[in-house]
Write a structure and sequence with these properties.
Number of strands: 0
Distance between the termini: 50 Å
Order of helices and strands: HHHHHHHHHHHHHHHH
Strand content: under 5%
Structural class: mainly alpha
CATH class: Mainly Alpha
CATH topology: Amino acid/polyamine transporter I
Amino acid sequence: MKFSFFASLAIAMGFMMSPESLTILGNYMGQAGIPFVGALLLAGVFYMITAHTFHKAFSLFSGPAGEALLIRQVLGRIPAAVFPLSARVTFALFASTAMLVTAGFVFNEVFVYWFPNFTFAYLLLGFLLVMNLLGQAFAEKLQVFSIIAVLTGLFALSVIGLATEPTISVEHMKSSTLSLFPAGMYAMLLFIGFDLAFMQRIRNSDHVHHSVIPVISGIFLALLIFCLWGLTSVMHVSSGKLAETTIPYTLAARKIFGQNGRFIMGAVIIAGAISVVNALLLGISRMISGMAKEGLLPTVLQGTEKRAPVSALAMAIGIALLMASGIAGEPEIVLYVRAGLLLWLLNYVVVFLCIILMKSEAQPPGNSSPLGIKLIGFAVSSVVLISLLSTFTNTVALLKYMLAMLGVWFLLSSAWNFFVSRGRDVS
């Protein structure tokens, strides 16, 4: 297999293997018990079908800005910038800040007690920025390495845990304070971000038509690890502790393998932070570069086919400023990360809508998925979005922040379009 297969797989799994995903997995395994595995299976299958549908739609629009071009064709120029940017950039800034600071605390508490946690976070951000500025090939190799490290650590701990006598009774493993429907809604959060892999496609090249298999393989691998690690966690940690703690992965690792488990999980969390931040820098910077080439963003954000230095640098500066502001230590950071996830889900809803509305004559024969699958995808993603928005705590605050981000990007996009149209009139 070519290296590009593993690179696409690793980028698709970027957020799935993050500390945030492991926290969500542990918390809702604690609340729903073993039935949450069923919710994971349903969510995984849905995203595999979604990835296949998106792949067929995006193959019509080559390059990392393919999603924006799809939205532009159906809904217009402003929505083509508003929805992808409000979803991706919002999440990238706040999630990366949270992940890097988490990695810093883990490095300080598990490996080197005297090393300042924020210094480690800044150094890690600088390292990731340098790897992305060096070029796509360097960042992709780092992505593959980090995903392998996460998968190896979680698989090893899962095997050890499953081979060890459970410390929790079967009855308590099955006990649930959360019904299967809301559990399924939370499970849908764990596979977000698979579409980052589609942004590695180079415009007007054979790469546009590469197989969707690595993306689906990434979702399958994540599903397998989630099921194994979820079952292992409920076997060794009480449901109450799993549901309430912010570090369910550490509790489970220590119960399973003692201090060695703590070290392994520490390495997993740092590698997971690297995987999500690197995938976001790699995918979103190329998306921004592609959108700039299409005139949806200022041309200063353009990069080359292999590099998008300006947008990657801008994102890294934004993350550094957020870390310097101290927001990572505030409870609001959880709200902002969850709002970013919901905006990403909203973008999926918009993409499904555009796929449905796209004129059939614009699609080559055999390229379109059946209308029923598109409608189901649109309906499911819409229901998940509404359900999560209504079941999360601080619903009003979440909605306000989401609307604020959409509004900011609407104003910026409108201003840029006014500038472009005025320039055309003058010329």
